[in-house]
Design a protein that fits this description.
With about 650 residues, the chain is an alpha/beta fold. It is built from 24 helices and 22 strands. A seven-stranded parallel β-sheet has the order 8-9-7-10-11-6-14, with helices on both faces. A six-stranded parallel β-sheet has the order 15-20-19-16-18-17, sandwiched between helices. Helix 18 links the parallel strand 17 and strand 18. It is elongated and about 105 Å long.
Length: about 650
């Protein structure tokens, strides 16, 4: 027995083609299954109708078919959806080509994606919009860069917090050398859109209040990326509205966040909505509330419960998510990353003066011992103060994500500032109860520990933390290694991500380079034996991509079905379609047409209209009904 019938009808709304989805038959207790199946459609409150674009409609049709419903559509809808299915298949082929292109670009650089990153890139590249929610330290930046189309085909705008701009600029040059022009923009009034083949990196706070919609509509090659997109969790904030205006007009849009649900479920909805993913995942805000077992009172306030099992199923098609422990076997014991810290004009001028006093020999030094200790200590003390605000932002991000953190520095300024935060402990040379702090941290009493490298480099086990931040480093590599190993030791199950803050200035860049070079010398023998290459035989067949195998073939006509035989039958068919309201070309009304079938004829007339909508081939008996109804109602229709 055929399932309940669901109509797909091509309509025009706000100047764009949409698929109207409507239940023809009474659904009864199948209503909830139907609502779940049409996730991705938007409910238009003014017209009381469910609408979907072609991309979502293909997925909805597949889910309805799998749920046992019968999808009814005419040739125009069928052609559109088959075209979209072909487009999805083409995007998957393009994603595979994209991965091959990235491999080619990286062939001589010594860089390679890890197996889980290759799967992520393949999935992300096949989509027009998605969120990368991988855990911190798993390479979201690298994956996103690898997903970008070839430079000749795209212009890329990357928005994020100020502290991440240097990371994007550095990694773009490493992982996407085909983008020869990579520019970061700072300062209000300096915002501009990228040119073809260019990556522009900017921070959310300088996005313009008004973006020319007309201009953006012409940029069908625009890619917009929102880094740390959870910072836009307040939909009423100016920066969220500005970013959404850009994202709406982008051909491809992606978000990155390790904390997609910062605090409350409605913040997740806001983040998804920025990238036009909220309705794709949940269909409506009411359905979103249900998936989080929420209850909304008459004033609109929601009391949230625990997410039901279905919630993860809804989110899976729109985001990618790995935790460190999920892919630990594919990660090295330690993962290093560097964040460049921008300077304001006053700070840069101050450091330029110090650079002048150090003399030209400073930048030529091949070893730290060649730099006068007193001069260098003064400069590094200034640098530590300059980095303090960036360190605070990094700490706040980890606090929001509820991720324990250890902060190290050679200087007390930043350590004392962070240690005064609620839920934090400090370990310096003056600390008397180190072991008690260690025990309390391991037991979950502290959000983090701020420590000087000298005081905390030995005799501590802090494996509850999976992240460490170095505001600056010791001159002695062994001291740095000892500090790192407070968390990287027996009992560590998550893998360790170690982040260095480096000021965007020749002084700090040079000092950091010398420290790294000194460490590499010590590790040279180990690095030479390290094998970390992608296996050419890596099997991608296990990766399932959502390309629906839609059953869109028309109903078999059979030997007794035929098209209209004369003008009279053709005109009668037109009258019936107009009365039914099923054919948008015959009825422009978004609600019920003003004139329709009498009650006694309604079921029969609508069934005939559905057959006509799917195809103009009917049986002789059906054509007799068409003529009968056509004559009856022809006089009631206006010319």
């Amino acid at each position: 027995m055929a399932g309940k019938r669901i109509l797909f009808k091509l309509v025009e709304r706000e100047g764009e083609q949409r698929i109207l989805i409507e239940a023809i038959d009474y659904l009864g207790n199948e209503w909830l299954v139907y609502k779940k199946s049409i996730a991705g459609a938007r409910f238009a409150f003014d017209a009381k109708e469910w609408l979907a674009d072609a991309d979502h409609a293909t997925k909805i049709a597949q889910r309805l078919d799998q749920a046992g419903f019968s999808v009814v559509m005419n040739d125009a809808v069928r052609v559109l959806l088959n075209k979209e299915v072909g487009g999805q298949a083409n995007r998957i082929d393009a994603a595979r080509a994209q991965l091959a292109m990235v491999d080619s670009l990286l062939k001589n650089s010594g860089k390679a994606l890890r197996p889980f990153q290759r799967k992520d890139v393949l999935w992300l590249a096949s989509r027009k919009k998605a969120i990368n929610c991988n855990d911190m330290g798993l390479g979201k930046t690298i994956e996103t860069l690898c997903v970008l189309p070839p430079a000749k085909d795209a212009r890329v705008l990357i928005c994020g917090p100020k502290v991440s701009k240097g990371v994007w600029k550095r990694e773009a040059k490493t992982w996407r050398p085909d983008y020869e022009k990579v520019e970061d923009i700072s300062g209000r009034g300096n915002f501009r859109l990228p040119e073809r083949g260019e990556i522009i990196i900017t921070n959310y706070d300088i996005l313009p209040d008004i973006v020319s919609t007309e201009k953006l509509k012409q940029l069908d090659d625009l890619v917009v990326v929102g880094d740390e997109i959870h910072m836009l969790k307040n939909p009423r904030s100016k920066r969220a509205k500005r970013f959404e205006a850009l994202a709406k007009m982008a051909a491809v849009k992606m978000g990155l966040t390790g904390t997609p649900l910062p605090n409350r479920p409605q913040e997740l909805w806001a983040i998804l909505k920025l990238l036009d993913l909220a309705h794709e995942a949940f269909g409506s805000y009411k359905e979103f509330i249900r998936c989080f077992d929420g209850v909304q009172d008459k004033w609109g306030t929601v009391k949230w419960g625990e997410p039901i099992a279905e919630c993860a199923e809804r989110l899976r098609p729109v985001l990618v998510r790995h935790l460190k422990e999920d892919v630990l076997q594919e990660l090295p014991g330690k993962t290093y990353r560097t964040i460049e810290v921008d300077l304001d004009d006053a700070e840069r001028k101050m450091l330029d003066i110090e650079l002048t006093s150090l003399g030209k020999s400073f930048l030529k030094a091949k070893d730290l011992s060649e730099i006068p200790f007193a001069d260098m200590s003064k400069c590094r003390s200034l640098l530590a103060k300059v980095k303090a605000q960036a360190a605070i932002e990094f700490v706040e991000e980890h606090e929001e994500a509820n991720r324990p953190l250890i902060v190290f520095s050679m200087h007390r300024y930043g350590i004392d500032m962070i240690g005064k935060r609620p839920g934090w402990a400090t370990i310096t040379g003056d600390t008397k109860h180190r072991n008690q702090i260690e025990e309390d941290f391991q037991g979950g009493m502290y959000k983090g520990i701020a420590a000087t490298i000298q005081a905390a480099a030995t005799a501590l086990t802090l494996t509850r933390a999976g992240d460490e931040l170095f505001i600056d480093r010791s001159y002695v590599p062994a001291d740095n290694d000892q500090a790192e190993d407070r968390a990287h030791r027996y009992g560590q199950t998550k893998g360790l991500v170690i982040t260095d803050l480096v000021v965007d200035h020749p002084i700090d860049r040079h000092v950091h380079a010398l420290i790294v070079a000194k460490r590499k010398i010590n590790e040279a023998s180990i690095e030479q034996t390290r094998q970390d290459k992608v296996d050419d035989t890596f099997d991608m067949s296990g990766l399932t991509l959502a390309v629906p195998a839609l059953k869109l073939d028309p109903t078999p006509y059979g030997n007794k079905r035929r098209p209209s035989a004369n003008a009279l039958e053709k005109e009668a068919a037109r009258v019936i379609l107009k009365l039914s309201g099923l054919n948008e070309s015959e009825s422009k009304s978004v609600a019920k047409p003003p004139k329709t079938f009498d009650y006694a004829d309604r079921r029969m007339g609508r069934d005939i209209a559905l057959d006509l909508l799917v195809s103009d081939h009917l049986t002789d008996g059906q054509w007799r009904v068409v003529l009968s109804l056509g004559r009856k109602y022809a006089k009631r229709q206006t010319p």
